[in-house]
Amino acid sequence: MSNNEKFLWGSATSAYQCEGAWNEDGKGPSQWDIFCHTSKLNINNVSADISCDHYHRYEEDIKMMAECGQNTYRFSISWARILPEGTGKVNPKGIDFYNRLIDTCLKYKIIPNVTLFHYDLPAAIAERGGWENRKTVDDFLNYAKICFEAFGDRVPLWATINEPKYYAYCSYLAGVYPPNVQDFNRFACVGYHLLLASAKAINEFHKHNYIGKIGLVHATGNVEVQGNDEASKIAYRNADLFYNKWVTDTCIKGYFPDDLFPKLKESNIDLSFVKEEDKPIFMNGTVDFLGANIYSRSYVKPYTSGETRININNVGANSNIREGVVIKGWFETAYDENVRRNLWGREIYPKCMYDELMELKDKYGNIPIYITENGHGCYDEIVDGKIHDDERIEILQEFISWMLKAIHDGANVKGYYVWSSMDLYSWVNGYKKRYGLVYVDFENDNKRIPKKSYFWYKDLIAKFEGRN
Ligand code: BG6
């Protein structure tokens, strides 16, 4: 890190998960509004219609970030707030809201880090095929241009898309996010279109003299494999291709990994969505930085038998669902009895922060990296007016120590964001799984109470900056 470049410490949210005001001031419905209001698959039967009401309380939230010593805030823009129909007429009140949000960040000396798409596709676009429809790529480009023109004079960090792979995976392979499809072919097509949309927006951004840099946010987790025989080595390569290189090679190097399309063909994927004319778009649409959301590693073993299937636990502590993945012909999840797990059965494995950062360095050299999300979800409670979230502190501390070690060992990390700034809606899980540094009392007027972890983070930032 050069001396004049300040390390960024912040926290993150996304529009649907925190804003509320789902139909206020001209906002159109998103795919998630419709899903939460109408789908039987919304198993926790709640919505983010109000959530923590960030739309009205953003100043209070940003002020708390500043008082914590945070110098950056990652949030996303709701596409349907800017363009209620996804295309066509711009909603001026939507533009006003994000102007206020950005200006409030700047007033408190907080650097805005803005994601254009964090899962909440306008319903009108979802109705005409969503990301399966190639036209959505240009609709996204049009929306991105509007945002760049409106906010590009003040936003230093942009991300095109949050977790293209994980979003496509949950929506089109696991089927737990709308439109709740389970189909490898449709998943592959959506994944391709998301990456193309990102590359097109980056091409556009780089044509202008905006003040900022632009990247893409990937759900990054290094792959580890259970054995070391030949089959295990193949499983490792397949899983790394599936989880990581598909996205990271494409957005950093500008082309898909050589083995991706042959492997997809082997799985009988119809690759007619891949067009020759897209090649220069990918090549010229590489990222200025990678946003890495790091929560856990992927522990895998060779594929044995059966159809592709994915179990995700969105229920919580009382569920007997064991999370796991079988990708037919590629790999399957291995279960490590020795690693501790959260209430949803996911591994708590902070060392993956170091392993992943060193792997990114090996694969992509000096590309700047922001840890755009890292967090710990659990059930928090108020005891004597306070939230003693010691487990979160312990886990985040471990993750951060591994990050600092990776920086020491040469990883080019520029910033770190805790997921999440305050408690908010967790996709499909609802409100019991909390990640915030600030507790939100959803039952009592959404009152904000800083958790113990908020004060721990404040202290950590101050120490890092040599202020105490
Ligand atoms: C990330 C997403 O993948 O994980 C966030 O970008 C999400 O939007 C976070 O909330 C935690 O996931 P979950 O399902 O536990 O809320």
What is the topological layout?
Blueprint: E1 8-12, H1 15-18, H2 31-38, H3 54-68, E2 72-76, H4 79-82, H5 92-107, E3 111-117, H6 123-127, H7 135-151, E4 157-162, H8 164-172, H9 184-206, E5 213-219, E6 223-225, H10 230-253, H11 260-266, H12 279-284, E7 289-293, E8 298-301, E9 309-311, E10 324-327, E11 331-333, H13 352-364, E12 369-374, H14 390-408, E13 413-419, E14 438-441, E15 447-450, H15 452-464
Parallel strand pairs: 1-2, 1-13, 2-3, 3-4, 4-5, 5-7, 6-8, 7-12, 12-13
Antiparallel strand pairs: 8-11, 9-10, 10-11, 14-15
The structure holds 6-O-phosphono-beta-D-glucopyranose.
Overview of the molecule:
With 468 residues, this protein is α/β, with parallel strands linked by helices. It has a single domain (8-294, 351-464), classed as Glycosidases (TIM Barrel), CATH 3.20.20. It has 15 helices and 15 strands. It has helices at residues 15-18, 31-38, 54-68, 79-82, 92-107, 123-127, 135-151, 164-172, 184-206, 230-253, 260-266, 279-284, 352-364, 390-408, 452-464; strands at 8-12, 72-76, 111-117, 157-162, 213-219, 223-225, 289-293, 298-301, 309-311, 324-327, 331-333, 369-374, 413-419, 438-441, 447-450. Strands 1-2-3-4-5-7-12-13 form an eight-stranded parallel barrel, surrounded by five helices. Strand 12, helix 14 and strand 13 form a beta-alpha-beta unit. Helix 8 (164-172) runs antiparallel to helix 9 (184-206). It is globular and about 55 Å long. The model has no long low-confidence stretch (mean pLDDT 96). Bound molecules: 6-O-phosphono-beta-D-glucopyranose (BG6). Residues 14, 17, 162-163, 166, 219, 293, 373, 377, 419, 426-427, 429, 433 line the site of 6-O-phosphono-beta-D-glucopyranose.
